[in-house]
Every structure is written in C-alpha cells, then in structure tokens.
Amino acid sequence: MSPHFFDRIPCIFFLIIVLTIASSSHAHDAGATMDPNGNVASFTGFAQVSCTNSGSVPTDHLVASIKDTSPPQDNLLVNLQVIHVGNNINRANSTTDAVSGDANFSPEVRVPGGNGTYLLLVNKTGAGARSFIVSYHCMAVDGVTHTDTDILVYQFE
Description:
The chain is mainly beta. The chain contains 1 helix and 9 strands. Strands 5-4-7-2-9 form a 5-stranded antiparallel beta sheet, with no helix packed on it.
C-alpha cells in the first residue's frame, strides 16, 4: 500500500463517521418479528410516538409506513394504523404492505395532530410469523423538516 494511504486514514475514518451520523440523524425505523411461532393470528403491536418541537419548529403531522421483510407468503400481510387524539384534532389512518415479502414499504400515511402523542398499531392478516419495519417521522408543516421524535413500545403480543 502507498504511504499516502496511511496518511489519509484519519480523514477516511472521520468521513465514515460523519456520513453515518448524517444518514441516521433523521432515520426513525423500528422493526421486529410478530408471532415468531406463527400461531397467533391476532398478534398486535402497540407503541406511542411523541412528537415535539425541534427548536422553535413545531410538529404538524406524523408520517408512517410499514414494510414486510419476511419471505413472501400468500394472504399474509402486515398492517399499520396511526391514531392521534388531542389538540382538538382526532384523526386516524392506516396502510398495508400489499405485497408480502417484497422490498418495498407500504404507501405512506399522514396523520395531522401537531405536537403530542400518536399511537401506532401493527398487526397481520392471519397466523404466521412476519418480520417488519415501521418507518415513522414527526414532521413540520413544510413536510421536509423533521421534528423531535421518540417512541415507546407498550405491547407486542
């Protein structure tokens, strides 16, 4: 190897760290396997997402989608429901990854509600283990600015 390569190692290491932080700074994804034994058709996951100001920029809405990461299986799909109650804005929306086991997320849903708490429910359409990823983002009114986002899982059974 060239001696110049070794001179550049600190710069390369720093660049990798910066790119890793930049790519993950707005990534809000959570995943797991529902019903690993494959025998609970009514398996449901329940989590709470809290959206707050990012500095002086308030949250306007939550956007979310779900992706089935399991091998394809006919008639076994994963679903996501998003619910907001409060701030005089009581809204809900849902989405389904309509193609079992492909590499694509479901259509994204948007639920207005401002700063506050949004409930996420994940379930599946029948018995069988399903691995999934939920992508969720608290967003400002411009639809581009991410606001502060936290998640707490309450139920996964």
